[in-house]
Amino acid sequence: MDNNAADEAQPVVQKNGDSDHHASTVSAANGGTHPQGAAHACRVCGGGPLTRWVHLPAMPLTEELRPPSYSDSPYLADIDVYRCAVCGVSQTVGERDLSPYYVDYGYTVGQSPFAARFMQRLADTVRDRFGLQEGFKVVEIGSGDGAQLACFQRAGAEVFGVEPSAELCRESRARGVPVMEALFMPQTAALLPEEFQPADVLLMTYTFDHLPDPSGTLEAARRTLHPGRGLLVLEVHDLTRIVERREYCLFEHEHYTYWTAETLGCALARSGFRLLTTELLPEHERRGNSLLIAAAAMDAAHSPESEVQLAEWSALDYDKFQQEMDQGIAALDAFVEAEASQGRTVAGYGGGGRGVMTMAAMSSAWRISYVCDANTGLHGLLAPKSRVPVVAIDRLSEEPVDTLIVFSYGYMAEIREAVEKLPGAPKQIVSMLDILK
Fold it and tell me: What InterPro entries does UniProt report for this protein, alphabetically (predicted)?
């Protein structure tokens, strides 16, 4: 990866968004313009021009939580998202070397019963829906702590993971899931163990959008999978839902691309894949903002269960989103300020990316007393930029608040159940999505 790209080398720290973000265009041809003067082609189709439609100033990395004693300033840079006029894919431009960052990456949802159910349902559904036999081979890119692959093991598969985090690789091996410590790039596929070449299933859950070369990744996936029975299973954040919900917290430095079902289907087709389903699991069983698909090579034995109907990628109203996003951030600030003006205290729930990025864009985050999270590895740390402390759920009893804003809304039911059992539970528990509307 190139960490010297002109538009990424120097973090831009500013408090106010610029007023001409809709006019900012990056052209794939000579003479294109960019806020810092660089020209870029689409990272998916190689075309353009690219037009900027999202601007978030001075945003941190989602996982750069640090102890209170940590004195260095966090990485802060603008997040700008562009849309390609040719293929419609939304994306950032340039690349940065995140490999040192991922070495210490420790995000996991293993403590969540909902997530555990989702992972086992995914494994069982892939096996059953596509008739995979005992001993089928599964490779997961971005395999984390191995929890998802362990579910495939229970479903009768032989498994192997690729994961850049040394900490998560240790956890994966401890649970009996073999893993290669590496940040996946197209050439990484050739390093997989011989017994997993070819694989029956190549899985990427909330990983594909972290990879800077999506087209190269899809080509590598096609070479890795068995040509007759191989399945590609992808889970990404659904850009259509992001726009509908004003869910700006999912725009992150770690994400290179943002997908709708339509743009993903087109990208798959260009790389020789056929989209089999966008409904691998029903919505109520998926995680928050989950676009979960299965695909296979054009000439594979698998066929769509029914014709997959996709709308035009241009159907989203990109032009109005920046204004609506700004209004959503303002609504969050107004909500917190109104609580404070009434003498009510506020805490949050969810110290992962949603909470970090939501608070980073707010001017009122300093009024949030703390953020609860089930991940013990986050306890005692401060969220980057906002510096809100992340604590255990027990803090809600030890230091009660009046109102709890749930950033991890995908786990709302189990969070509400756990919180309401506590002595001194907040009087009001509200999803951030209800405030963003």
Answer: Methyltransf_Zn-bd_dom_put_sf (IPR038576), MeTrfase_14 (IPR013691), SAM-dependent_MTases_sf (IPR029063)
The per-residue DSSP string of 103-157 comes to HT-----TT-HHHHHHHHHHHHHHHHHTTPPTT-EEEEET-TTSHHHHHHHHTT-
> CB of 21 within 8 A of CB of 67?
no
Distance between CA 274 and CA 52 in Å, rounded? 30
Pairing relation of β-strands 25-26 and 50-59?
A: antiparallel
Distance CA 126, CA 128 (A): 6
Considering only the top CATH level, what class is 320-436? alpha beta
Any idea which residue has 């070479």 for tokens? 223
Q: Which residue's entry shows tokens 């810092």? A: 36
Residue 284: C-alpha distances to residues 126, 234, 281 (Å): 17, 18, 8
| 113-315 CATH | 3.40.50.150
Contact (CB, 8 A) for 31 and 4: no
The closest of 6, 30, 155, 156 to 95, measured between CA atoms, is 6
Asked whether this chain's domains 113-315 and 320-436 adopt the same fold, the reply is: yes
| Residues of the chain below pLDDT 70 | 1-38, 97-111, 305-314
Ordered by start, the domain boundaries in the chain are: 21-90, 113-315, 320-436
Tell me the residue length of the chain. 437
CA gap 161, 181 in Å, rounded: 8
CA distance 196 to 88: 34
pLDDT tens per residue, range 196-235: 999 999 999 999 999 999 999 999 999 999 999 999 999 9
